[in-house]
Specification:
The chain is α/β, with parallel strands linked by helices and about 210 residues long. It is about 35% helix and about 20% strand. The protein has a seven-stranded mixed sheet with strand order 3-2-1-4-5-7-6, sandwiched between helices. Strand 2, helix 3 and strand 3 form a beta-alpha-beta unit. The longest helix is centred in the middle third of the chain and has 13 residues.
Amino acid sequence: MEPESIIKSITPPNLIYRIPSIVEQLDLTLLYSKDQPLEVELGSGDGSFLVNYARLHREHNFLGVERLLGRLRKLDRKGLRAGLANLCGVRIESAYFLEYLLPPHSASALHVYFPDPWPKRKHRKNRLINARFTELAQQSLAPGGVVYLRTDDEDYFSQMVAVFGVNSAFRLVETPESLSGVLTDFERNFQARGVATRRAAYRLEFKL
């Protein structure tokens, strides 16, 4: 057996894709064995939502974007245990990923669940969902693609609704019950404490 073959045979499988360049768009064909519609979760946490949703929808590919390596490793372990070939994770900041690395109009859905609310007024400029985000979402989604949002923070939810409401490229739509029933780790905790989840979904009607 050749040395390279030996290395490959003892290297454990891994769902974490190491981005080769932070200035070049990803080649999505390298991430998945099948060419299928792509759904992206921005801030995948411990991977609870994405692993469960990818298990239910093996006809789609799923990409988890997470800045914290420890959380990404949880997605990796859970996805491997579930035997998911349609799941991959990358470690990078979400807005940067959308703007520079995700090929334009390549995603059929973006999922953003319980992003940091940055509750102090002076810190709200750090929120992921703002007017600029709607432009990045418009750049990232294929026509008819949908942004799915969830938060427990009433003020942040108002901001989400406001910024998408003034972008004429998007139309407010219902979140399917089959999707609402797939919970994140945060959401399970909030439900146990009686904290309400606020949801919204916006469909892209046309491209830039």
